[in-house]
Design a protein that fits this description.
The complex is a heterodimer of chains A (740) and B (744). In chain A, helix 3 crosses helix 5, helix 4 runs antiparallel to helix 5 and helix 19 packs parallel to helix 20. Helices cover 33% and strands 23% of the residues of chain A. In chain A, strand 3, helix 1 and strand 4 form a beta-alpha-beta unit. In chain A, the strands form 8 sheets. Chain A has a 7-stranded mixed beta sheet with strand order 6-5-4-3-2-1-24. A 7-stranded mixed beta sheet of chain A has the order 7-8-9-10-11-22-23, covered by helices on one side. In chain A, strands 14-13-15-12-16-21 form a 6-stranded parallel beta sheet, with helices on both faces. By secondary structure, chain B is an alpha/beta fold. In chain B, helix 1 packs across helix 2 and helix 6 runs antiparallel to helix 7. The longest helix of chain B is centred in the first third of the chain and has 20 residues. The two termini of chain B are 68 Å apart. The interface between A and B is large, with 98 and 93 residues.
Chain lengths: 740, 744
């Protein structure tokens, strides 16, 4: 009668695709992570689309695209409408990451999969939790408790623990057990024997990361070498994740050595990112918290790093050695892309990768060995329209506006007829026309928002000064006998809009952030994107260093061995890595290791039987517990009875207890026992795998006690001739166990 | 109040504490010690007499906690803040777990007298200390408790509280002008205490020693928390200071998801009700506006951190919307002014949405119209001005200096913006006396206007009663309120909870509240043992594993699956020199053991013997036999006997002689058993006599018990004796039976 648990991967198994898994617990469907890649490839989301409407809750683990990128699109186009749970940093930094991606894409293409509005809308309903907060699900999920715990990889990164009836299902991907500058290590190791553990094999083949100090030193050495040789350094980074660690390393080193080379952090949201990082000290490592408590020095108050949100600011800076951390680690689009193209031809420069590029991205290509001599890139630019194009555009605008107005009236009429909440007729040709076709066009399911979405989706910057954030439908408003036709909806959602408005202010439309991106967001001049292919000769040095902040293969195995789940599910990682880890775990961790294929639903319901009984006072008063670490343990013989309320209870036996086999409880480590014997004045030494005690007695251990799930009990063999010594050693051995 | 120190001296001297029990004789032996202690002793007398006269048994918690440990008694004792405001500190103990809520000082006293009654407890026995917020009356005795007592438990507070705690206490130490010997602790102690304080985030659930706890937003000041503690399923909520009203920067206190069994709640405002916030704000700004426009000066004595920030937000906003006031300066006179800003800027996630949204565009705590003022030397007192200065009670410091300067001019005004503690000057001037005593000791007329507009963010009656009605805790303990207010609140709440299911208690300091919780212990049977749910009457045998307060029953084989414990198996092999015939051993063994099976070893083909399937005897060579068996008390015993037998056999001096080949009759067996039982009972109880029909009469100090040996029934007037005889008889009967070798 264990809790039923099914796991169905929607994306990201046997490869490095984004992560997205459906985990149902007693029929309650959790979508754990909702990732997308940097190409925003809609074909990856097909499987998500098929189950989106059945999802009851979404849990997000990390604030990067691989873990939450598809959320806005899924909410808008795939019919995902479940409540979302994440930690505060995942929410904030995830939002910024999505903004940055959108703005970077928008700059070079007619990107229309989702808009800033969609991002806001998707993130607005996230319930924010703190680490180890137990959140009790209600309604359909009654009895399920979810709790985020620190994962150690990104700020706010989460290992999710979902508990029902005392059985834990743990989702832990991309964890890092090592303590870093800004993060504590994961707490995954504190969980013991969960019913199910879902984890990734991403790093399973990677072994032996250098110690942090050494790695940091290599990083700094490489940088200093280039700087001293008058070179420029580009570090392609993510928007708001690992970059925080890199910034701290640089800032500290610059501070210590009083360096004056400029450091720039360039993303569309860099200043907001750092502002939020400053306010997330609670989520960071102990040392950061401590330094703030003692001296009120906020680690992210950085003296040596200049925050930029616009590439032109960078161009104004005199040429010379410098470091630029620019967003879009993939080098596909964004600032890093542009800077790479400019700098790649100079052999003095350095491009320093700190994470493996996603599959089929420019970054990945450059990380291959040997690196390509030349790469083809597409340079795209948004330029204002002029002359005929502008005229044509304006005409198109007018036409659209008219259609818009017409449609608005149509919709209003429709809505007047139908009650609120009825879905729009999906076959409305204009909607499909204007919006990108989702995998299935019928999914255009946003209800009263559809009208607004269409307007923005067609991507036309509104003619007035209002940006896409606040769509503006004036001028062509309809008049009838009673005056201006009003849309009742405008008034209906007024209250919700209050929150939305405030959300937008904090997220995006504020002055600090906007100066740079305003040019884009509030760009009112009609513009178009022009692209040109160009070949870049890569002469600069390319270096890859692992700053991904994930545990390496060896540590993963060790941690899995320690956590020792009853059942283990492996996801995310190359086929090779997955298979490697599977084999290892089958041998050393537990007998139930699953690595499901895409859409393969596996049943990891525990075959655990359990029932509850009440322990009667009478029984308990006769029980003497023996203390063993955190545990207290005793042998009970009891008779089953019933309490008044009908629950089973255990009563003392009326007859003498049946004899039982003595249980020796304890775990003996040969090395420890050796020391113990030595302290008792017995000569001990290891010889041929056995412990030789005294002159004749040997002690051997057979059976692998490290394999916790395997059911092996450790056997200790004590051999020797009849002698005093034999009995003495036996007494010492017994003293290491509790016999029950 | 000096009593506190008296107790402390006693303690260091003698942990027996005769005085604490209200002993008839005051302790004499200290009188000779020193002059200082004599004077202290007098105060001790006072306390001793006081206790005698009230007839209230002074409860020594040290004793109760030691005797009732593991008991189901839940004890709550205010060590401070019981029928008073100040030095919050509430002791709680249940199931052998002890914890303290808050650790404050009394602002109206100084030195040892300001401490809570720590002598009532044994600090080394406290597992956990939870601090709700940074105010001095909730946190300021923490460095003392951590550094100067035997406390070794763990301390938790929220991130913001910890950051401000250090700021505030360092300042407190600098400002408090007490003699060196009255200093409770110095700056170093505070720094050291910082290393011991651990942090907890709102809603984060932590567990220490089986005590689970988490905290909710309390609204009162930045970082203020209400703690919920769960010990073995019994939940206790300690609100600390809380406010259910959202203000400019803080969230309102949350309503916990679960109803606690006990709610320890503040009662500062008793039955008073607050005016709505906007009315208070208008009053506040109007008073200030009027005063400054008539050329007067406004003094706002306020505690440097916490509520001051709220007032500054109000003032800054008001000034922004009233350009005509821009020439009137506002000063925030506190040495902490600048330093605390960093904290307020960082922990915006502990504030409300409004501030967090503002934060994104500009820092709302970056005031445009308010300038910080470090000391009065920088202040040029020329014309109208608004000065917010600490401390809030006008005891000393900047606010007192300004008050002394301005109090006799009727153009000036003093706005008291929060709760003022009994015994401070601020409390005195609320009643608008004609004259006041200045810090210099002179008296001066009090002409300035005094306004009392409360922004102190404590719950008022409406908030308290609604909060409690929503929570419906069966037990309510009122603390942190002046005795009269608390009494009125209690009466009014009693009428609200008239159904009689709710107990409302207002303990005084050191007065213990004891409650009994009959917690049912539930165990979960898991694994192989639970494959089938047993029906009534069946037996369940297995390992009972307790971790924290959870119990699990499992089969020994499952132990390593469900816990980190593992089971071991010791296999023993012992070789014994023996050169005789193997058959001899077999013969001898058969005389002792019922089951001796002989076979040959599959590998080597040597003959082996199996004794009850436990011990295997094997002829290794001409000169050696070996024994091997799995360790187990019974097998060990069997093997010992086999070893003895083989040794003796090899010596060819057979000592095991079979007494008689004849099977003993049943009658003889029974007689023998009876004899042994009798002898053992005699050795236990002394006077044991035979009665008819195999019954025994046991006589212990006049109590008589009749034991029926056949059924094991015992009859006795004396319950205690009956149980003892029963148990003894059960054990004896199991001891005289042969050991069940077959059992496994």
């Amino acid at each position: 009668m264990g809790t039923s648990v099914q796991v169905k991967p929607l994306c990201g198994v046997y490869n490095e695709n984004p992560l997205s898994y459906l985990v149902s617990i007693d029929g309650f469907n959790f979508l754990i992570d909702c990732g997308w890649n940097d190409h925003f490839d809609t074909s990856l989301l097909e499987r998500l689309y098929r189950v989106a409407s059945t999802v009851d809750a979404v849990l997000l683990s990390h604030p990067d695209t691989l873990h939450l990128g598809a959320l806005p699109y899924a909410m808008k186009q795939l019919g995902l409408s479940a409540p979302v749970f994440a930690t505060e940093p995942v929410y904030r930094l995830g939002l910024l990451t999505m903004y940055d991606h959108y703005l970077s894409r928008k700059q070079v293409s007619e990107f229309d999969l989702f808009t800033l509005d969609d991002i806001d809308l998707a993130f607005q309903n996230i319930t924010r939790l703190t680490y180890s907060q137990n959140y009790y699900m209600s309604g359909k999920g009654e009895g399920i408790v979810i709790a985020p715990h620190a994962a150690g990889h990104l700020l706010g990164g989460t290992v999710w623990k979902v508990t029902k009836d005392g059985e834990d299902v743990i989702y832990a991907v991309d964890f890092n057990h090592r303590k870093e500058r800004h993060l504590n290590g994961t707490v995954l190791e504190s969980f013991v024997r969960p019913a199910v553990l879902i984890t990734d094999a991403y790093n399973a083949l990677l072994s032996n990361q250098p110690p942090r100090r050494q790695r940091d030193q290599q990083f700094l050495d490489a940088i200093m070498k280039t700087l001293r040789a008058d070179g420029k350094i580009l570090v392609p980074v993510d928007t708001a994740g690992r970059v925080l660690e890199l910034l701290l390393i640089l800032e500290q080193y610059w501070e210590q050595h009083q360096l004056t080379y400029p450091i720039f952090f360039l993303t569309y949201v860099s200043s907001s990112t750092i502002d939020y990082a400053k306010s997330f000290l609670e989520w960071m490592s102990d040392s950061i918290a401590k330094s703030f408590e003692h001296t009120r020095d906020n680690a992210f108050f950085m003296k040596h790093v200049t925050l930029l949100i616009n590439k032109s600011e960078l161009e104004n800076i005199p040429d010379g050695p410098k470091i630029v951390l620019a967003s879009m680690a993939s080098l596909e689009v964004g600032f890093s892309h542009d800077i790479f193209v400019e700098w790649a031809a100079d052999s003095k420069n350095l491009v320093l990768f700190t994470e493996r590029g996603q599959f089929a991205t420019l970054a990945r290509m450059l990380q291959s060995d040997p690196p390509p001599k030349a790469v083809k890139v597409t340079m795209s630019k948004r330029i204002p329209l002029v002359g005929e194009e502008l005229a044509a555009y304006e005409e198109e605008q007018n036409r659209k506006r008219k259609e818009e107005a017409l449609k608005a009236t149509l919709i209003k009429e429709e809505e007047a007829k139908a009650s609120l909440g009825v879905e729009l007729v999906p076959a409305d040709p204009m909607i499909i026309d204007a919006s990108i076709k989702p995998p299935s066009s019928n999914a255009a399911g946003l209800q009263h928002g559809a009208f607004r979405d269409v307007f923005i989706d067609g991507f036309v910057s509104p003619p007035s000064s209002a940006g896409p954030m606040f769509p503006f439908y004036d001028s062509s408003s309809e008049w009838d006998d009673f005056g201006e036709v009003i849309n009742p909806d405008d008034y209906m959602i007024k209250d919700e809009d209050m929150d939305q408005a405030s959300m937008r202010i904090d997220g995006d439309l504020n002055g600090k952030l906007d100066e740079g991106s305003a040019g884009l967001i509030l760009d009112t001049t009609p513009s178009k994107v022009v692209s040109s292919e160009q070949t870049v000769y890569v002469k600069c040095s390319l270096v890859y260093m692992d700053f991904e902040g994930r545990s390496d293969g060896g540590s993963i195995k060790k941690i899995l061995g320690h956590v020792a789940p009853l059942k283990l599910v492996l996801v995310h990682g190359s086929a090779e890595a997955t298979e490697h880890l599977r084999q290892h775990c089958l041998k050393n961790v537990c007998p139930y290791v699953y690595a499901p294929q895409l859409e393969e639903s596996i049943d990891v319901t525990s075959d655990l039987c359990a029932y509850k009984v009440q322990l009667s006072e009478k029984l308990m008063s006769n029980i003497l517990f023996k203390k063993l670490g955190d545990y207290e343990i005793a042998w009970v013989d009891a008779e089953v009875g019933k309490t008044e309320s009908g629950t089973l209870s255990l009563l003392p036996l009326s007859t003498p207890p049946p004899p039982h086999k003595t249980v020796l409880v304890g775990d003996i480590k040969m090395a420890d026992f050796k020391q113990f014997l030595a302290s008792k004045g017995i000569q001990v030494e290891f010889a041929g795998g056995a412990l030789r005690c005294g002159e004749y007695v040997t002690l051997r251990k057979v059976g692998d006690s490290s394999q916790k799930g395997g059911g092996n009990i450790q056997h200790i063999i004590l051999e020797g001739p009849l002698s005093d010594e034999y009995y003495k050693i036996r007494d010492h051995l017994y003293s290491q166990f509790y016999s029950l | 109040m000096m009593a506190t120190r008296f107790l402390r001296i006693c303690k260091s001297d003698d942990r027996g504490k005769p005085w604490a029990d209200g002993a008839a004789e005051p302790p004499r032996r200290w009188i000779n010690n020193s002059v200082k202690e004599v004077c202290v002793l007098e105060v001790g007398f006072l306390k001793w007499i006081a206790m005698a006269s009230t007839g209230q048994p002074a409860s020594s918690l040290k004793r109760t906690s030691s005797t009732s440990s593991e008991g189901d008694e839940l004890i709550i004792t205010p060590l401070g803040a019981g029928n008073e405001v100040g030095r919050s500190c509430v002791y709680m103990s249940y199931k052998g777990k002890t914890l303290l809520f808050d650790c404050g000082i009394h602002p109206a006293f100084s030195g040892m007298a300001a401490l809570p009654y720590f002598d009532e407890i044994d600090p080394s026995a406290i597992d956990l200390l939870l601090v709700t917020h940074f105010h001095l009356d909730h946190a300021a005795s923490l460095p003392y408790f951590l550094e100067k007592t035997t406390f070794r438990g763990r301390v938790f507070m929220t991130h913001a509280t910890k950051a401000i705690y250090k700021l505030l206490l360092s300042d407190y130490v600098k400002v408090s002008k007490v003699s060196v010997e009255d200093m409770l602790y110095d700056e170093q102690d505070i720094l050291r205490s910082m290393d011991k304080i651990e942090v907890i985030d709102f809603h984060q659930t932590l567990e220490v020693n089986g005590v689970r706890f988490w905290c909710y937003t309390a609204g009162h000041v930045l970082g203020a928390a209400m703690f919920m503690v769960d010990i073995a399923g019994v939940r206790v909520l300690y609100t600390g200071d809380y406010s259910r009203e959202e203000d400019r920067h803080l969230r309102a206190a949350e309503l916990p998801q679960f109803s606690p069994d006990i709610c320890i709640i503040e009662s500062t405002y008793g039955v008073q009700t607050h005016q709505p916030r906007h009315i208070r704000e208008k009053l506040f700004t109007d008073v200030i506006h009027n005063t400054v426009s008539q050329g007067g000066r406004v003094l706002i004595p306020a505690f440097a951190l916490g509520r001051a920030q709220e007032l500054l937000l109000i003032l800054d906003e008001y000034w922004s919307s009233h350009p005509e006031l821009h020439n009137v300066p506002i000063y925030y006179a506190s040495p902490l002014a600048k330093r605390c800003m960093a904290v307020y800027q960082t922990y915006i996630n502990s504030m409300n949405e409004r501030i967090r949204n503002q934060f994104a565009s500009s820092n709302p705590f970056d005031f445009k119209h308010i300038s910080p003022l470090k000391s009065l030397d920088e202040f040029r007192d020329v014309g109208p001005a608004v000065v917010m200065a600490s401390p809030g009670g006008l005891q000393s410091g900047l606010s007192r200096q300004l008050f002394d300067k301005w109090c006799s001019d009727k153009k000036n005004a003093c706005v008291i913006p929060g709760y003022v503690v009994e015994g401070t000057l601020a409390k005195t001037i609320i009643n608008e006396p004609k004259e006041v005593t200045l810090a210099s000791g002179l008296t001066a007329p009090l002409n300035m206007q005094v306004h009392y507009i409360s922004f102190s963010a404590h719950a008022d009656y409406n908030q308290t009663s609604t909060f409690l009605k929503e929570l419906m805790p069966p037990n309510i303990i009122l603390v942190h309120g002046e005795a009269n207010e608390m009494g009125r609140l209690k009466q009014k709440l009693l009428s609200v909870f008239a159904d009689g299911n709710t107990k409302i208690i207002t303990p005084k300091n050191c007065q213990s509240v004891e409650m009994h919780f009959n917690s049912q212990k539930m165990a979960k049977t898991i694994g192989k043992l639970a494959e089938k749910t047993p029906s009534v009457g069946e037996t369940v045998s297995g390992l009972l594993v307790k971790k924290g307060f959870t119990y699990q029953i499992m089969a020994p084989e499952d132990l390593h699956i469900f816990s980190q414990l593992s089971t071991g198996n010791v296999i023993q092999r012992i070789t014994i020199p023996y050169s005789g015939a193997f058959a001899v051993i077999k013969h001898r063994l058969k005389q002792i053991y019922e089951s001796v099976e002989s076979s040959t070893d599959e590998e080597s083909g040597v003959p082996i013997l199996k004794v009850h399937d436990r011990v295997t005897v094997k002829q290794e060579s001409e000169n050696h036999v070996s024994l091997h068996w799995a360790a187990d008390p019974i097998s060990d015993m069997v093997s010992d006997s086999v070893v003895a037998l083989i040794i003796n056999a090899s010596r060819e001096l057979p000592k095991v002689v079979v007494e008689s080949e004849r099977e003993p009759t049943e009658e003889e067996e029974r007689k023998k058993t009876d004899k042994i039982i009798h002898a053992l009972l005699v050795s236990l109880f002394g006077d044991v006599k035979y009665e008819d029909e195999g019954k025994l009469v046991i006589n212990v100090d006049g109590s008589v018990a009749h034991l029926d040996k056949r059924s094991g029934d015992v009859e006795s007037e004396n319950e205690g004796l009956k149980e003892r005889v029963k148990t003894a008889f059960r054990r004896i009967t199991s001891a005289v039976k042969p050991i069940p070798l077959q059992g496994s």
